[in-house]
Amino acid sequence: MSAISISGLHKRYPRVHALDGIDLAVERGEFFGLLGPNGAGKSTLINIVAGLTRFDAGRVSVLGHDVVTDYRKARRLIGVVPQELTYDPFFNVREVLRIQSGYFGLHKNDAWIDELLAALMLTEKAGANMRALSGGMKRRVMIAQALVHRPEVVVLDEPTAGVDVELRKSLWAFIRRLHSEGHTIVLTTHYLEEAEALCNRIAILNRGRLVALDTKPALLARGIGRTRRVCVTTEQPLAGLPGALEQKVRRRDGHMVELQLDKGTDSVMAVLDALRAHGAVITDLNMEGADLEDVFVELTRGK
Ligand SMILES: Nc1ncnc2c1ncn2[C@@H]1O[C@H](COP(=O)(O)OP(=O)(O)OP(=O)(O)O)[C@@H](O)[C@H]1O
């Protein structure tokens, strides 16, 4: 049985086909990344899995429980950390977590709440009013809130958006811990670095469609993963480029030109020679292997 199973899923808003036939299964125990540019449909998908958004066609279940016909059971098995910070400013942190526990009929949940507060470094803020917390702390409370009922499946919609580096690292550590304790984790993120560091399987969504779904090494091994980026800085802005190089340009900005080269067939030395023969005086050179960003850019570019 899959942790999350989605088949033939369609969701239309009046002006956009937000999800255009999604088939996807997240297995139990996976650390799954859901990536995509703005508007790709990630939040819509997550909200559907959480039972918060209606859809037009398809089937969605959490650990075998249909999110529509078996809503209550599905809801108990999943914890969703939404992207937007929504909270009631009149309650303190502990009250928020107690109220949330109450929704699940858990009236003696303080031991677990204390554990969550400690793990998320919120113990000292337990009595603080929500409105008095910083954005990063509110986000941690929302994570705790999603976990009060110890759901097996944890879905985090951009948990580290707008969070400083230090807190991001501690959130990563906490999410890793949840995963090592047996939770299935689904993470949406804009930070490719984050998906590369954490997820074992990654789906890339673009305009409501899945454009890739594979393990991280398999994604990197795709054709595009065999390229290398070379960034050349020249003394004078380049007037033009040798014809053969024009089509390899990825970015160009005054003194700098970034080329995407095939590791197998393009020799870096030959490229530099061609630039020099064209009158360029090279002052700096940077090379990078392909990373997930190349794959992402390639798959979500244009149409
Ligand atoms: N309630 C709504 N009413 C109408 N259109 C919506 C609604 N919610 C989302 N959309 C549209 O559906 C599409 C998918 O949006 P969604 O928020 O799921 O994307 P996303 O991948 O989560 O983007 P982001 O990374 O910016 O959060 C977008 O075109 C968006 O404008």
Ordered list of secondary-structure elements with their pairings:
Blueprint (H helix, E strand, L loop, with lengths): L3 E10 L2 E11 L4 E5 L6 H8 L7 E6 L2 E2 L4 H7 E4 L11 H11 L6 H10 L15 H13 L5 E5 L7 H16 L3 E6 L2 H7 L2 E6 L2 E7 H6 L5 E8 L8 H4 L2 E5 L2 E7 L5 H10 L4 E8 L2 H9 L3
Parallel strand pairs: 3-8, 3-9, 6-7, 7-8
Antiparallel strand pairs: 1-2, 1-4, 4-5, 9-10, 11-13, 11-14, 12-13
Helix pairs in contact: 3-5
The site of adenosine-5'-triphosphate has 11 residues, from strand 2 and helix 1.
Keywords:
6-stranded mixed sheet; alpha/beta; 2 domains; Alpha-Beta Plaits; 11 helices; 4-stranded antiparallel sheet; 303 residues; single chain; elongated; binds adenosine-5'-triphosphate; Rossmann fold
Mean pLDDT equals 88
Distance between the ends? 35 Å
Reading the helices and strands in chain order gives EEEHEEHEHHHEHEHEEHEHEEHEH
Anisotropy-based shape: elongated
Q: What does the largest sheet look like? A: 6 strands, mixed
Helical proportion, percent range: 25-40%
CATH superfamily of the largest domain: P-loop containing nucleotide triphosphate hydrolases
CATH-derived architecture of the largest domain: 3-Layer(aba) Sandwich
**Total strands:** 14
What portion of the residues fall into strands of 2 or more residues?
Answer: 25-35%
Count of alpha/pi helices: 11
CATH topology of the largest domain: Rossmann fold
Q: For the largest beta sheet, what order do the strands appear in spatially?
A: 6-7-8-3-9-10
